[in-house]
Amino acid sequence: MYRLWVAEFQLQKFKRQFREQHGIQISFSQKAIERLVHRTCETKQPVLEFCNALFKDYQHGLHLLQKVPKLGQLEVDAEEIDDPGTAIERWIRENYRESQK
């Protein structure tokens, strides 16, 4: 319970920093939060540090998403915690498809 509360607190900070840095609103499903808690317990990393490392290699994809007009909120699910590259690729496809309509 305590770890979940700490994780949610650190995720709020990460989401704020992510929005400020990339101009993109991001949210996490409950399953993603649970996966984060599990993964950070395994790696012994704080959630904020883990999330920063998770998304740091995807600057190009995030830059493409910044150019999408009317980009909504992106939701991270448990699968994206394990493979953020696939998530970013999917978000780009979905959002560019929407912006072409």
Helix content: over 70%
Tertiary shape:
elongated
Q: Low-confidence parts, pLDDT < 50 over ≥5 residues?
A: none
Helices and strands: which structural class?
A: mainly alpha
Strand content: 5-15%
Mean pLDDT over the full residue set: 84
- β-strand number: 2
Distance between the termini: 44 Å
State the domain count: 1
| Lateral strand order in the biggest sheet | 1-2
H and E order:
HEHHHEHH
The value of Rg in angstroms is 14 Å
Question: Total number of helical segments?
Answer: 6
Question: Biggest sheet, in brief?
Answer: 2 strands, parallel
Question: What is the secondary structure topology, with strand pairs?
Answer:
Elements: H1 2-22, E1 26-28, H2 30-43, H3 47-55, H4 59-66, E2 74-76, H5 78-82, H6 84-99
Parallel strand pairs: 1-2
Helix pairs in contact: 1-2, 1-3, 4-6
Explain what you see.
It is a single chain. The protein is mainly alpha-helical and 101 residues long. The model has no long low-confidence stretch (mean pLDDT 84). The protein has helices at 2-22, 30-43, 47-55, 59-66, 78-82, 84-99, and strands at 26-28, 74-76. The protein contains six helices and two strands, in the order H-E-H-H-H-E-H-H. The chain has a two-stranded parallel sheet with strand order 1-2. Helix 1 packs across helix 2 and helix 1 (2-22) packs parallel to helix 3 (47-55). Helix content is 72%, strand content 6%. The chain has one domain.
